[in-house]
Amino acid sequence: MKRTKLRFALAGAALVAAAATGTALAASSSDSSAGPGSGSEQTQTQTQTQQSKQKTPDVIKADGANVFPHSVDYDPQSKTFFATSLKQGKVFAFGRDGRVRTHIDDPALVSAQAVDIDRERDRILVSNTDYGIADRSHKDNPFKVAGVGSYDLASGKQHWCVDLTAVANDGKKHLISDVAVAPDGTTYAVDELTATVFSVDRNGRGSIFLQNDLLQGKLDIPDFLDDVGMTAVEWVEGNQLIISMADGSLVRVPVDNPEKAQKVKLSTPLASPPAGMELLKDGSISVVSSGLLTGKPATIQHVKPRDGWKEATVSVTDSVNDPITSDVTVGPDGTTYALSGGLAQFLAGKPNDGFTLTPVKTD
Question: pTM for this one?
Fold first, then answer.
């Protein structure tokens, strides 16, 4: 399989992108020019209040050398972020200080791609993939590993790790791009390279949940992958799955009647390809779309549903200078961060000295 052209293209996109930055706030020049008796004290108080409301959290620069995360999630109880690594097949923990430590090191994981914290059951769900270039890769047989593992949230100890290629038993390439956990503890895993959604029960028993032409991929990445499809998934109220497609569409899947899956009618398509989603408190979704193929800044979009997710309004709320931004997560104190994990360097076989979480606006 040829990767040379894509690697150069992705590396070029990473070089073009500037370092992720937060919004800088400057003091109002009117304060300094206000003279005695002109209401300067009141103006200063109002300005300070406004600045306090507008203050942007700092960018988090994590120090994990050669850690290439594609996904990140946050646990508010321990005040800890958890990020995967495509290169080592591990899951790393860190706080706002950016100091990275290994939390899950399971030999069964080749490339750890998606991470989702199941707070109800104190566990972490991780998707298992193989791009053929990770430390544990089967170098001559990429995309033949696909699975989901469950791990203790506190200790990182494995509960189970299910092989979904064995469940599919179709001899095809597979890439589990994302996972979502329903309230009953069922994990749903979407396959980027086939039109298959898998389900895994709380005991690690996997099965095919849905195969539907609506989920068939249509986006080609030159000299790398063809027919790229499902990129991310969220469980939402009404017992439904919302699945993002690489072409910028969304598909709604009723869990109790998956055969009734249908496209969500969007006010405008998501920028392509959407890379990661985060369910917000009000039931809407924040989506980050990567500039993977264009080299342009990644786009943060807000998706507000109507009529039980049959329709939705899409609006752009922010952007991230690094085009290869792959996920978005809620953080501490009402913050939201976008993840830039060095995917371009990983695919190009280059080292990195860490990764970045950039604060972004979601509405």
Answer: 0.86
